[in-house]
Structure formats: structure tokens, C-alpha cells
Amino acid sequence: MNAPQPADGAARNRVGLWLARPLASFHLVVTIAVLLTVLGLVMVLSSSSVEAVATNGSAYGLFTSQAIFAALGLVIFYLALIVPVRVLRRFSFPAFAVTVVLLVLVLIPGIGTESQGTRGWFVVAGVSLQPSELAKIAIAVWGAHLLASRRAERSSTREMMIPLVPATLVVTLLIILQPDLGTTVSLAIIVLALLWFAGLRLRVFLTIVGTAAGLAVLLALTAGYRSARVRAFFNPGADPQGIGYQARQAKFSLADGGFWGRGLGQSRAKWSYLPNAHNDFIFAIIGEELGFLGGLAVIGLFGLFAYAGLRISLRSVDPFLRLLTATATTWIIGQAFINIGYVVGLLPVTGLQLPLVSAGGTSTATTLLMFGLIANAARHEPEAVAALHAGQDGRFGRLLRLPKPEQYTPARGEAVRLDRRADPARAEPRRAGAERGSGTAVRKRPAPPERASHERARGRTTQSATPRDQAPRRARRPARTTDSRDGRTGERGNRR
């Protein structure tokens, strides 16, 4: 009689069986996106109610704006989920060019709007739009398309970096002129992730990282507000009522929450004790109202998203989707890590928002767009493609009427590389034929001894029995095929 299986072992088996399903990655990404969006709406309502009453006379003012952008973001999420990959790649560069134009226009007085010392918004019909958020997506998608194409062509390091790095420097310069430190950090994360996952040489990658770190230190020490934030990080007590006030109040809020929290809506810090409680420092309100367990749950959701995103990247066969998914995952997780890091006092304050949780309409919509692209990549996993074409859409897929994903067809260079990796012996005749077609000299083996004896028996001259590497080369025929045919000819001559 078999012994009963432990409860933890049974739970692991159930989780393993669920993860083995073809659409497990897709369901993970969609579930995490919905949970983070709902959590963000609840916490924005709780943390902004006091400020909204003082500003607009209604506790639902900021929440209503956030809910509208979240609804718009869900529509964008669906569009990103159904867009074909070839269309996404085709329009990646035009989208990047449009964002560059918007970044230039936002710097013009009278067109761009300035808020808290930063000129980085358009105000259209009372709605604020931030083009720098669009620039992050444009660079991620266009960079993944560019590097995937260069890898298929086996380009050099210089060709991989140009024009991606110069174009990123132009965008970074335009964002520094606003100025916007948080978006600059996000752009650095995106470009470094693209180059790393594209397989850039370690020495070149470390050189770029060192250069970027040096420029970051230079900017932090030369600009007034950035250098003040760095000084406040290293010496929080130097100006507790000035530049260090926000970071100190965030720590007090976390400490006030304890393990279980004060309860949803019961925060004290939101009563004008913590500036930007609904935006940059919303994690402090989460820790105060939901306690250590609530903060740990938020970190767990982002950790689960990191697992899902990297799992999709590893299982994808399309180099473009592999690069885009890994880069987008690194970007979102890196931004969450930096935000939580400066709230708890581990990093200097940069102004980066907590993805899908902090208040910010453009940021919420663009983050949901990236979640939609990652979910789209999950539906292009080989197992998922086979299951969906077999009619295993599931209830959720039938409800959304999602189209069937297209099977990935590798480019010529990618196909040759995959063929060589799978079977090097089969790739040799193809390589020899390619060398003949390109005019490259191909080394040939001497003729078999049967052919030489056959030619001498028929009275041919010695010159006709010279080795085959001195004979005229037959056009576009692999050497192995010619040798085997000559061998059979010699055998027939001997039998005669």
C-alpha cells in the first residue's frame, strides 16, 4: 500500500501541472496585470482622497482620472494582445520617430506644460500626456526589432550598437532638457537590457555601463535638485524639513504600519504629512495601511511577474519577441525595485513611479501596453501556438475572441544558424554549396583509387587521372555527392 503523499508535495505537483499547461504563461501575465491595476486603483483612492478634497472638493477627483486612464490602458492592453508581430516590427521605427518629434515639441514654451520644474507634459482637453513615457516603449520595441535583425545577419558589435545607441543618446538629451531624472534612468535600463540580452560582448557591455554610471554621477553632481537629492540620501538629517523631508516621512509611515497595518483608508501620512503620497511614495501608504504583509504581497506580485516574463522569453523562438519580453520585464522590475528602494531608504529619490500602482495616467496606460505585448508573446510560445491552432483556446480566449497566433518563420540567417546548432553534419554540404556560389575556393578530396585504375584500364592518359582538386570544378555541386558518384562509376567499370 502506497504511503500518503505529503501536503506540500501534492501542492507542488499541482503547481507544476498547472505551469506545464500551454497557456500558463499567458494566464500568469494577465492575472498579475489585473491584480496590480486593481490594487493601484484602491490605493490611489485611499492615498489621494484628502488632497483631492482640498483641491477639487471631492474625494474621488484623482481617483476618477486614474480610473479613466486604467480603462484606456485595458483597451490598449487588448490591442497589444491582438496586434500581429510583423505589424509591430514594421511600425516600430515610425513610432520612434513620432516620439522624438513629440519630445522636441514639449520643450517649446506654449506647447509643453511645466509642472514642478519639469516641462514634460501636453495638456489636451484637461488631460495630461507625457511623451517621455511613449519614448520608453518606442525604444524598447524598435531596439528589439533592430537587434533581432542584426543578430540574424550576424552583424558586428559596431553594427549592433549603431544606430541604437546614438538614437538613445538623442532621446536622453531631450529628456534631460526637461529635466526628468526618473525617465532617464528608465531609458538606461531599457538600452542596457537590450544590449545584454542581444549578446553584446561583456567587455563592450561593461564599458557602456561604466560610461553610463560616470555620466549619471556627473549629472547628479552638477544639477541643483539632483545633487540635493543625493546629499539628502547620504545625510538625511542635514535638512530634515527641506529636501530630506519626504524620505523621512516615508520611513515614519512604514514604521507606523507595523506588521498588520493600520487598516485600509486609515493612513495618517496622507493628511499632508507625506508629499506625493498617491504617486512616487504610494508604497509607503501601502506599508502603513496594509502593513508588512501588504508590502510583501506587492513585492511578491512583481517577483511573480519577473518569473513569468523571463519564462516567456526563454520559451520564445522568435528572436524579436525574446528580446522584447526580456527587456520589458527588466524595465518594469527595475523601475519597481528603484521605487521601493528609495521609499525604504536604500536608494536616492529619483521620482520613478511604482508600475500600475502609483497615480499617473500616461504611465499606467503605457505599462499596460507593455503587459499586453508580453501577454502577446506568451501566446506565441510553440506549445501555446500548437494548442491554440488545435482549438484549445479556453474560456478566456473565446470570451475575448483572440485571433490565432502566427507560426514563427525564421529568417534565412537564423534558419542556417538553427540548422547548424541542431545537426552540424547536415550543415556542411549547405556550407560548401554556399561557398561555391560565392566564388570561395573549396578544398576537394582526391579521386578514389577505383576511378584511377578504371581510367588506366581504358587507355586514358595519365593527365586525365590527376587528382580531382586539379580537375575543372563542377558548378554548384557538393563535393560529397560528386565523390560518391565517381566511386560508383569506378565500381561499374571494374565489374565490366
Automatic annotation (TrEMBL):
Keyword match Hydrolase: no
Domain of life: Bacteria
GO biological process: cell division; cell wall organization; peptidoglycan biosynthetic process; regulation of cell shape
InterPro entries associated with the record: Cell_cycle_FtsW-rel_CS, FtsW, FtsW/RodA
Composition bias, Basic and acidic residues: 414-434, 447-458, 480-496
Enzyme kind, highest EC tier: transferase
Reaction(s) this enzyme catalyzes, per UniProt: [GlcNAc-(1->4)-Mur2Ac(oyl-L-Ala-gamma-D-Glu-L-Lys-D-Ala-D-Ala)](n)-di-trans,octa-cis-undecaprenyl diphosphate + beta-D-GlcNAc-(1->4)-Mur2Ac(oyl-L-Ala-gamma-D-Glu-L-Lys-D-Ala-D-Ala)-di-trans,octa-cis-undecaprenyl diphosphate = [GlcNAc-(1->4)-Mur2Ac(oyl-L-Ala-gamma-D-Glu-L-Lys-D-Ala-D-Ala)](n+1)-di-trans,octa-cis-undecaprenyl diphosphate + di-trans,octa-cis-undecaprenyl diphosphate + H(+)
Tagged with keyword Glycosyltransferase: yes
Record's keyword terms, sorted: Cell cycle, Cell division, Cell membrane, Cell shape, Cell wall biogenesis/degradation, Glycosyltransferase, Membrane, Peptidoglycan synthesis, Transferase, Transmembrane, Transmembrane helix
Pathway the protein takes part in: Cell wall biogenesis; peptidoglycan biosynthesis
Residue ranges, annotated region (Disordered): 400-496
GO molecular function, one term: lipid-linked peptidoglycan transporter activity
Job of this protein: Peptidoglycan polymerase that is essential for cell division.
Name of the protein in its database record: Probable peptidoglycan glycosyltransferase FtsW
